[in-house]
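Fold tokens
===========
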Amino acid sequence: MEVSKEIKTKSLYEYLNYFVSRNVYRLGLRATRDISSLIAYRTKSCMKIMSELSTKEIEELKKIKGFEQYINILEYLISEQKKKEVLKNIDKSEKFEGIITILQKEIEPVIVEQQEKIGNKIRSDWKRINDEYEKIGDDGFMEKYGRTYTRYRSTRTERTLSDFRRSYIGSLWKKSEKYLEIDIKGQQNAYKDREFNKVKRLIGKLAERYSTIDNIKLTSTQRSVNGIEFTMDANVGNTKVIIDTSTIYAGGYNIQKLHLRWLLHVIDAISGKTMASIKGN
């Protein structure tokens, strides 16, 4: 049975009244230290109801004492949620699907190289930790990884074998080759998904910055020391632009953290002036 709009609006009024009466200072979609699960639930409910109201109806609610600040927050959350939904499905949009697919195909050779490095790194670490175990035995291994004490002035910390097992290298200890390969495949696929999603987010940021951008076409691709860089043409309204990327590797202490990062420059094709620089992930 579908709930009527009148009942939904009444519920929205009650939730907003609750926020006002309790002097709630933060709204959010997830429970945190500052947001209770009840507030998170009511925030979601308010957003859902507000999405079905007209601008005029929302403006009328804002006139009620204490409501405006919460409605403004809810409007912002609704706007951000819509942006995320558009970005999530941007590779399925008629305007951007083609260019996203092309760019993902262009960066795949670098991804394959990094996937191979990920596999080699994990296999090397797996062999190292298990060879060490065979060499020093249960007692030596327990002493080294199961009873690690660190003292610094008045501070003392202790790491147990359970802590070690939760670490990256600890997760490889005593793992069979069969499950090692399954784990490697999973991490390689996850790496590829992350890099492909970076292309989606980069085009999403471009679309968010220039809502009228259209006719994006790849004009050139080149391999640099750091990865794949590409140049595109597009139209922003009546302005013809060149979209140029520079690519860097960003990473951490191990190869699994390594990833491509783009810096995108939007250039006026006539004047040569840089209109915007957009950072990728």
Notes: The chain has a mean pLDDT of 87. Residues 91-279 form one domain. The helical segments are 5-21, 37-50, 55-62, 68-88, 97-146, 161-166, 177-209. The chain has two domains: 5-88, 91-279.
